[in-house]
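Worked example

This section walks through a single chain of length 303. The input is the sequence exactly as stored; nothing has been trimmed or padded.
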Amino acid sequence: MNYNLKISGPQQKNNIVVFFLSSDEKKGDNYLSLSEGLEKNLVSISEIEKKGFIFNFLNLKVTNNSLQNLILVSGELITGFKIKQDRVVATTTIIPSQSSAIVGVNCCEKSRWSPLQDNTISTSNSLFFSRQNLGRQYKIWNEIKDLSNNLNVKTFTFSAEDIYKKKEQSLKEIENFFKPSPEDIGVVVATNNQIKTLDVFSNHHMLQIYLKKIIRSVAINNFKKINHKSYLNSKDVHKFLRLIHHSKKREFKVTEGTCGKKIHFNRETIKGTTIYLNNQVIHCSAFAKDFLAYRPENEYNVA
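Given that input, the structure is written out below as tokens.
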């Protein structure tokens, strides 16, 4: 990943602070997002049936009928009654044009196990609120339960989407406040003087598609926080980028039928994943770890 990104000044709404990231490098090709593909009927999603086991909730079959590469971003919520329960995409995945692949997902609607007659399917306006724990199913269910209790939201099927819908008006006020420039390709989101997430895409178009979803995923956990002045600045974001650069990195194979090169990185306070294609960053996501959110003073030995 390019660590020489230009960092904007902070924008603050309530206790949510956003920095935008831009680059002078040539921008990457546009990809078809999952929301665009479903809206244009260029993408189909179906359950995977197995003999002797009628339901596989950790995988979905995704078919890309378009002439573009399709991107599914980690944390993306797939909702609707065509599938037997809502799911969250476990890791950013690229599916080539006119092909199908099995995509790893987690359940984010514990108590529904059947499709309904209307056959709807779409993506949520939000990403999952704890993307750093994707792949750990028990944590996802526990976090949905805890957040619904904290926000006093009743959800009969233990659905993450129900929580977002109940807080829709408050979320819209926050998400609509932040405005990127046309050169921006990434975003850093912080709360309470702690950097929470970083996302970098191949171009501005992809950032526009996912920006509000990213902000909502952080804001949903902060309705009861006290509004206070942030002391974070661009130097703190630079330090966070250097943490990614100096993290331990490990390459993982992508799923059969998908493309790209996937690198996981890990350090005491952060972790994340970068997926490349044709030597370009398609999506990088980094998160402060649950047990020790990233504060600038937590790291002294970053070169």
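What to look for: The chain has one domain: 6-298.
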